[in-house]
Amino acid sequence: MQSYPHIRKTPQSELEWMEALVALSRFLRGPEGCPWDRKQTAESFARFVHEEARELVEAFQEEDKNDHVEEEWGDTLFTLLATVAAAETEGRFSLEHALQRAHEKMIRRHGHIFGKRRAESTDDVVEIWKEIKQREKHEKKGK
Q: How far apart are the C-alpha atoms of 92 and 57, rounded to whole Å?
């Protein structure tokens, strides 16, 4: 693999590839990076997420096009990472905190796995999820 300024060695695992993508999204916004990327804001990158996600869904609808699905999935992920890189430079939030919050939220929302409730069916899962989500909304309003 060619040498790149945002990584020290060729990634060998999922975690290392994720680190490389995060580093690339940040590098592209830096002084040696891309003028277009530097000009974007978290909000402008976020607008691209919708388009990339739509392309991902369309790729899944094609028959036997797993390479295309993989490519579109990667585009969607990278666009999300570019969004957070911009958000970090704007002082809005950090990737670490966003990942922590997403993890905590998914644990909460899966009350049928990590809580006291049990689901006997997928319908039960959806109902528990909705109840938890409604409770969270109510608690946010109370703050």
A: 29
Question: Do 92 and 43 touch, CB atoms closer than 8 A?
Answer: no
pLDDT in tens, 49-60: 999 999 999 999
Rounded CA separation 101/12 (Å) = 27
Q: What is the pLDDT of residue 104?
A: 97
Specify whether the CB–CB gap between 27 and 33 falls below 8 A: yes
Contact indicator for 95, 83 with CB cutoff of 8 Å: no
- Which of the four pLDDT bands, split at 50, 70 and 90, describes residue 33? very high
Which structure tokens are listed for 37? 């990327």
In the chain, the amino acid numbered 13 is S
Tell the burial category of 68 from Cβ atoms under 10 Å away from its Cβ (0-12, 13-18, 19+).
middle
**Is this prediction's pTM over 0.85?**
yes
Evaluate whether 68 touches 106 at the Cβ level (below 8 Å).
no
User: By three-state DSSP, how is residue 120 classified?
Assistant: coil
DSSP string for 34-77: -HHHHH--HHHHHHHHHHHHHHHHHHHHSTT-HHHHHHHHHHHH
